[in-house]
Amino acid sequence: MAQGKLVFFGELLIRLTAPGNELLMQSPSLALHVGGAEANVAIGLAHLGHDCAIVSTVPSNALGRGAVAGVRGAGVDCTAVTNGPGRMGLYFLSVGAGLRSSEIVYDRAGSSFAATGAADYDWDDLLAGARLLHLSGITPALGPRSADAALAAARTAKRLGVPVSFDGNYRAMLWEAWDSDPRAILSELIGLTDILFGNHRDLSLVLGQEFSGDGEDRRREAAEAGFAAFPRLQLIASTARHTVTADHHRIAARVDLRGGGHQTDQIDVTGIVDRIGAGDAFAAGVLHAQLAGGDARAMAESGLALTALKHSLPGDASRFGQADIDAFHGGGLDVRR
């Protein structure tokens, strides 16, 4: 494997989940998991053998220390996670079933991470020798200071020649909570990006145009518009999901390159245990194949494998290795001994 760490920048969160398929507060207990969009991708790639490091800020209390311990325990370097004033970001989950969808309640305003800005991170030092910087659209949506920090990271990566991976992760409620201009901020970030995780809706937002095709044709039309608008962009990856019930989805994966692309067949994902973090698992799978020099087909199939497998696992992050991806593609569903 090529040398150089993969650097992830984003907020660590603690998730509190109602037991089983209960509603929140139905019974007086909650299960705790550590996550966060960027941390989830880092954990997924660490389990695939990559050298991953996360940059973040947490409060100096038991919650902050516990979150760091959880990410570090998953194999991610947390040396660049600092302490700051504020609180730990939380969210609460009730897992759906049948015709009842899952429900999330966020409680993250005023977090230690959201209070940090560009001046709080020495990106020249943090990105020295890095092989990749991964960001998501959640960080700039948290507020003007977080937006400045994300832009500073991406600008430094460009100057240092470090490729940037960016997951759109558009969160309308976060953007609407402050006097924001998401189109301008996201456009600049995508302009600094080499690898984009996003679909035709994300590109429609930043480009201000609708795409007339349907299915694969619409996604290719959107990708070509993205490549034309953002010269640095080399790869666009996305999933197409059809929700049948809360525990039965149909999913396909797509990767577009400037010279073409590949879309997988749609697969049925049934008996879903936990779909939270499935998009982050997809990103980890695509990046895993891309870092190994895989083509569009290999990246799409690797991403599909991890996103499908993640639905079987409680918690926010994929914890599967290459053997699990190989078994998925081999169709081996019997007990592995």
Which helices and strands, and how do they pair?
Layout: E1 6-9, E2 13-17, E3 31-35, H1 37-46, E4 52-58, H2 62-73, E5 81-83, E6 89-94, E7 103-107, H3 123-126, E8 132-136, H4 138-141, H5 144-160, E9 164-167, H6 172-176, H7 182-191, E10 195-197, H8 200-207, H9 216-229, E11 235-245, E12 248-257, E13 260-263, E14 267-270, H10 278-291, H11 296-310, H12 322-330
Parallel strand pairs: 1-4, 1-8, 2-6, 4-5, 8-9, 9-10, 10-11
Antiparallel strand pairs: 2-3, 6-7, 11-12, 12-13, 12-14
Helix pairs in contact: 1-10, 8-9, 10-11, 11-12
Describe this structure in words.
The two termini are 28 Å apart. By secondary structure, the chain is of the alpha/beta class. The protein has a single domain, classed as UDP-N-acetylmuramoyl-L-alanine:D-glutamate ligase, CATH 3.40.1190.20. Helix 1 packs across helix 10. A hairpin with an 8-residue loop joins strand 6 and strand 7. The strands form 2 sheets. Strands 1, 4, 5, 8, 9, 10, 11, 12, 13 and 14 form a 10-stranded mixed beta sheet that branches. The protein has a 4-stranded mixed beta sheet with strand order 3-2-6-7. The protein is built from 12 helices and 14 strands.
